[in-house]
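Suppose you are handed a protein chain with no further information: no name, no annotation, nothing but its sequence. What can you learn? This example shows the usual starting point.
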Amino acid sequence: MRILITGEGQIPIPMFMDPFCEELAFPTIWFGHPRGTPPSNVRLSFDDFVNSEIRRSDRRACRPDHLLFLHKKSQIAQLMRQVNIVLRKSAQTNNITAADVMNQQFIDNAIMRDNAYKFMSSITGSPAYWENQKKKVLAMVRQLGTFTIFLTLSAAETHWGELLSILKRTVDKEIVSIEDAAKLTFEEKARLIRTDPVTCAQYFDHRFKHIRKAWTNVENGPFGNYRVAHYFYRIEFQHRGSPHVHMVLWLQDAPIYDVEKPESEQSVVEFIDTLITTDGSDPELQNLIKFQFHKCSFTCKRVVKGVEVCRFNAPFYPMDRTRVIEPIPKDAKFTADVARKMRKIKKDVDELLRTDMESIDSFEKFLEKLGCTLDEYITVVRIHTKHRKIYLKRNPKDNRINAYNKKILMMMRSNMDIQYVLDVYSCIGYVVDYINKSSRGLSRLLRQCVEDSRRGNHNLRVQLRSLSQILYNSSETSAQEAAWCRCRLPMACTSVFVEFISSGPVSVNILKYEQNLNIFNAKFSHLIFRRDKEC
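A reasonable first move is to predict its three-dimensional structure. Written in structure tokens, the prediction is:
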């Protein structure tokens, strides 16, 4: 007896070449019917189909597993297109002489034209894509100067009654008021958010757009009399899958801190106090201040010299007023008695901050508990400050409240962080830390793959295929990120157009198909092209 296996002896068809792979993989969505085809005079891509289906009132196509399938299928199609384009390019690198190898400019141009990295620059979320975004920020810093504000906005889906009411209507077909939706159990809220990632992603984008519109109103906006001249932001997805925004803002006529001008400190402090606060007793924010309360978890704890500390430096040091603290010079020396007293004050401060600070309602009482003067306390802070840093005015009982802007917090109703940028060094640090934070591990794998391919003398096709497989198999994508990309929402945006102009000789030829060349020769055969030797 012979057992027959379906598809025996046949070559498997890749998912991006099978016209019915989606219908076969998700029978509960398509019920055995193929996707409709557009009229012959209308050209629609696969992304056009997906964008239309996930935005319809019928939410069957918004399942998380289906979204991830669509995202990966679209990603494979993009990678294949980019690989084909790269293979059609012919770089003039075959006839390399010894003089070329000795020329540093030739080597630099060869590195810049490395197709192993550049072919992924159009793939949203790839390391090459974020590398281009980082270059845009650096170009803006070079042309516009150091940005003024660094802003982070997070999502709070379980606390947004409007979103939960919309999800209840789209998922369960039930009309629930905003007040009743906010009273749902956490398990019910989590179920609604997991079921429809598309609505959650679109709602966050819509809410963020309205906040940006409010910034254009200078009088009633969150930045007072300072207009937002330029901005750059990127969308990053947290480990729980929700989006949050990292944004840098250039405020017009904002004061700039200058070490050589002591009077600039006062103007910077006044500017910060008008925009940023840590006050936890504002009666208008009693229902919102919970978003700014920092509760240490396993993700922010680290061990330093055998002591478990928070990587965000919480609980934060109280301060009588906003100050720009300069670190103690390295060549500064203290007597043995002074050094012993400073260590004791530091130990007392750390122990006091770990206790309940609700009973200490003023900074003066805080110093009384420590038994030290203001100058001694500032000296201790300076000793343990490695770089120039801003310490905001903070009551002792608010030692775990993150900095916030009152109007932005009231509009966003979620966790936020806002910082004034002191100098260009911290500016570059922010760019490096946040623009490429989510792709560090993937970049390491890609670099290792390129080195292995070069040592093995692999051709360009094998290198590009290996890199594509690493990007496809090693990148972590949440359902909301897949929904964000399939809805064609921007992952990064800037207020200006950044264009790179090469100052070196770069020549790239595109190989055309034979049928295109035949058409070209037939059309222009009557013309004579001549290139003089002098040219």
